[in-house]
Amino acid sequence: MNPVNYLYLAALLFTIGASGVLVRRNAIVVFMCVELMLNACNLALVTFSRMHGNLDGQIVAFFTMVVAAAEVVVGLAIIVSLFRSRHSASVDDASLMKL
Amino acid sequence: MENLIALLVAAPLLGAAVLLCGGRRLDRAGHWIGTLLAAASFVVGVVLFSAMLGYEAEARTMRQHLFSWIPVEGFQADIAFQLDQLSMTFVLLITGVGTLIHIYSIGYMEHDERRRRFFGYLNLFLAAMLLLVIADNYLLLYVGWEGVGLASYLLIGFWQHKPSAATAAKKAFLVNRVGDMGLSVAIMLMFTTFGTFAFGPVLSATGETSEGKLTAIGLMLLLAACGKSAQVPLQSWLGDAMEGPTPVSALIHAATMVTAGVYLIVRSGAIFDAAPDAQLAVVVVGAVTLLFGAIVGCAKDDIKKALAGSTMSQIGYMILAAGLGPIGYVFAIMHLVTHGFFKAGLFLGAGSVMHGMNDEVDMRKYGGLRKYMPVTFVTFGLGYLAIIGFPGLSGFFSKDKIIEAAFAKGGTEGWILGSVALLGAGITAFYMTRVMLMTFFGEKRWQPDAEGREPHPHESPKSMTIPMIVLAFGSVFAGGFFAIGDRFTHWLEPVTRYDHGHAPVSAATVTGATMVVLLAGAALAWAMYGRRPIPVVAPRGSLLTRAARRDLLQDDFNHVVLVRGGEHLTRSLVYVDHSLVDGVVNGTAASFGGLSGRLRKLQNGYARTYAVSMFGGTAVLIAATLLMRAV
């Protein structure tokens, strides 16, 4: 099977994730979309690794997983404390940074 | 002996410092300290004078170098004094008349609670004026010049609780500033032209300098003299300066400070001799002021303002004489000294009259005072006879010499100047006779003042009458003492040089003509003010009288040309500032403000907006990279 198809799949997944981040309000869904984008990246990295015949991409994919795991921990903690203080998981309710 | 020169300035300066810094504990002794130090300065002057008489006429100049003031490569300013016959004459006049007026002020200012301060200012004035006349360079002269201006300002505004006095002080200061600018520009021009501003080198180097430069320096010096000596066109401050206490008017605005301009021109004689155009300007200024002051003096009902017009006119005579060159220098100074005596005497007399009349200055409310104030009447009368040039008295000798010198200038110029001087003598006789008749003769016309106090005219205390008597002696005898045997001419000749000129008419003819004009003036005044009773309320008068009452519209002229002009200039400058400068600045600020207001809206706090900008930015970067690679 042509590895380029994996790249198309990765691009498709990334786009779905990105548009999810932009349009959805629920913090959990936004968070899941971020994960989707990360995994799309991983897929692309692994595909490139395969196409070029070296392992660099796969190693970076491992790093991405580690970072993603750490991000899940921090992100979920933020979402939980946000929900506790605002009784809502909507990202629009956390718009206190503007003047 | 030379080392005593600094003491002339030091004594009154010490007095000023002690009196002004000493505070209230000196209130009871302040006037004695001030008078004593003024007298000390006079004694030092007399000692130096007697020493000077012991030297040969050509070697009488004494010098004292005190210390180097500003020693910079190529720019050497020293605190150094030069006492020659010209300076000596001034020193004796200033300290002599100054001491007398200090004594007079003890009585005159008796009821003023700020008397100590008054004496401090008087001492400050003496120190500055002495510095002015004994400086050996123009820069040090400038220090004295500014010092007398300051003292004049402080003393005119001495009764600062009166708004008119405060305004008059400011006016005098401002008008003097214009003249002072002239002196500072002249000093700068001297430095660029000669590389120095010491009298000796500057005045001996005039031969090798271009006439244009000398004319410029001369005109700037003339501007300075006009400011300090109240000559047209900077004359407007002197009338208002009469707001000051009368001893101040006598000392500063009659006898000494206002003659500083004459000193400056006579001292700088070498410059004017080498620049005929500047000299012509001096003569014109003198002649115009001579008539201007005299006409103003004719119309004033305020006794001090009438005398101020007269001062202006008499200094016009001196400036005129100083502009005649070596023919006139000696007579300018001679008239200056005799004028110092009789005008100070007249002012002190006026002060004595005011003292007895509840400070009333309107001559229309005097009348018949000779019975009540015999000493004042006699001393004032002698001063009057001296100023109009009654034969044998001081003014006769000094003014007659100036008229002769004006004729001796030669040519049409000589005739014009001589006639103007002659006419001025007639007007002098007119206005002084008017003052005399309105004050001391006729019916008594005084009325209760605003608070209902009836004036009780009385003779002034001894401390006031004695200085008046001494000055009256000077008014009577000084002229004859100076003129007979040409004593004064021989005395000053080594410094100012002297030239007979070529008189087109004999001295006797000039004297005769002067007498005729004088009698005509006095007779006219008698016909107008002696024969008929004088109305207490001034009649409307002719157009000229009304103009002269308003100082010949000098203030109106200044107002229309300078004040309005200045206002228009500043208003247009403010307009340019508001529209153009502020427009650019405010416009820049407003556009940045508006821009940032719009940019701020981008920061709406929604995380997804930031995400969009991140995605957009990344997309743009990637697109750019790809595009670059493609090219």
Keywords:
heterodimer, A: 99 residues, mainly alpha, Helix Hairpins, 3 helices, 78% helix, B: 631 residues, 24 helices, 2 strands, globular
How does this model look, in words?
Chain A: The chain crosses the membrane at residues 6-23, 28-48, 60-83. Chain A: InterPro entries: NADH_UbQ_OxRdtase_chain4L/K, NUOK/Mnh_C1-like. Chain A: Belongs to the complex I subunit 4L family. The complex is a heterodimer of chains A (99) and B (631). Chain A has 99 residues and is mainly α. Chain A has a single domain (4-86), classed as Helix Hairpins. Chain A contains 3 helices and no strands. Chain A has helices at residues 4-23, 27-52, 56-86. Chain A is elongated and about 50 Å long. Chain A starts with a helix and ends in a 13-residue tail after the last helix. The mean pLDDT of chain A is 90. With 631 residues, chain B is mainly α. Among the domains of chain B are: 286-539, no CATH class; 559-630, no CATH class. Chain B contains 24 helices and 2 strands. Chain B has helices at 5-22, 30-53, 85-108, 115-134, 138-156, 163-194, 199-204, 211-229, 237-240, 246-255, 260-267, 269-273, 276-299, 303-323, 329-356, 374-388, 394-408, 411-440, 462-483, 487-496, 507-530, 543-549, 554-600, 607-630, and strands at residues 62-72, 75-83. A two-stranded antiparallel ribbon of chain B has the order 1-2. In chain B, helix 1 runs antiparallel to helix 4 (115-134). Chain B starts with a helix and ends with a helix. The model of chain B has no long low-confidence stretch (mean pLDDT 91). At the A-B interface, helix 1 of A face helix 24 of B.
